[in-house]
């Protein structure tokens, strides 16, 4: 029997997933949590074979929780679920050394199969997302350009970014022009969207 902990903040989704998984003859959901901060304590208490974790959780995100599991209880396998099919999200998940990555809109039977594969020591990655991540490549921006773009994405204008980074407003504007050019964006908003979808900011 594969013992599973399920971390999902949406109650109806969590209930549906538990009902679905408990229909499987070899899978049992032994614990459930609705926020990321409860994952590691529950994993310590119940020692599941596989922790199925939604990436977007309140208080502590799923990837951070998965990384903590990897550090403290490496025998527990981790399978990430996400509704965000972004290549950058997959890269972050792989950097956190999770064992599996599945989109929430995958067919129901795929989840049970992924849990079995992960429990058996295999790595499971959504194939379309893996291809997209491969095609996207590395981030072309420098660390300073990423800092500027992160502040812009948070709503700061050029003078505010200049103060935050101890730069002149003109230098910030030059950075933004370079960023937009490197990302092939139409404008600042488009550059932010491209970087967010790629998981670079």
UniProtKB/TrEMBL annotation:
- Tell me which residues make up the HTH luxR-type domain: 133-199
Name this polypeptide is given: Response regulator transcription factor
Source organism superkingdom: Bacteria
Domain Response regulatory, first and last residues per copy: 3-119
Name the SMART domains on file: HTH_LUXR (SM00421), REC (SM00448)
- Pfam families, per database record: GerE, Response_reg
* SUPFAM superfamilies reported for this sequence: C-terminal effector domain of the bipartite response regulators, CheY-like
In this UniProt entry, the residues modified to 4-aspartylphosphate are 54
Q: Does the keyword DNA-binding apply?
A: yes
Keyword tags: DNA-binding, Phosphoprotein
**Which N-terminal stretch is annotated as signal sequence?**
none
């Amino acid at each position: 029997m594969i013992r599973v902990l399920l971390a999902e903040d949406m109650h109806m989704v969590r209930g549906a997933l538990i009902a679905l998984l408990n229909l499987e003859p070899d899978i049992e959901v032994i614990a459930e949590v609705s926020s990321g901060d409860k994952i590691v304590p529950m994993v310590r208490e119940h020692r599941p074979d596989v922790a199925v974790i939604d990436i977007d959780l309140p208080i502590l995100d799923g990837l951070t929780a998965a990384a903590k599991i990897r550090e403290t209880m490496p025998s527990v396998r981790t399978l990430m679920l996400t509704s965000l099919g972004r290549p950058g999200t997959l890269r972050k998940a792989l950097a956190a050394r999770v064992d599996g990555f599945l989109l929430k809109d995958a067919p129901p039977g795929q989840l049970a199969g992924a849990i079995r594969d992960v429990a058996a020591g295999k790595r499971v990655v959504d194939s379309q997302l893996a291809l997209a991540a491969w095609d996207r490549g590395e981030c072309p921006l420098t660390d300073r350009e990423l800092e500027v773009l992160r502040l812009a994405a948070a709503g700061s204008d050029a003078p505010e970014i200049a103060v935050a980074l101890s730069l002149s407003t003109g230098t910030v504007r030059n950075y933004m022009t370079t960023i937009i050019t490197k990302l092939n964006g139409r404008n600042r908003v488009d550059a932010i969207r491209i970087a967010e979808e790629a998981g670079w900011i």
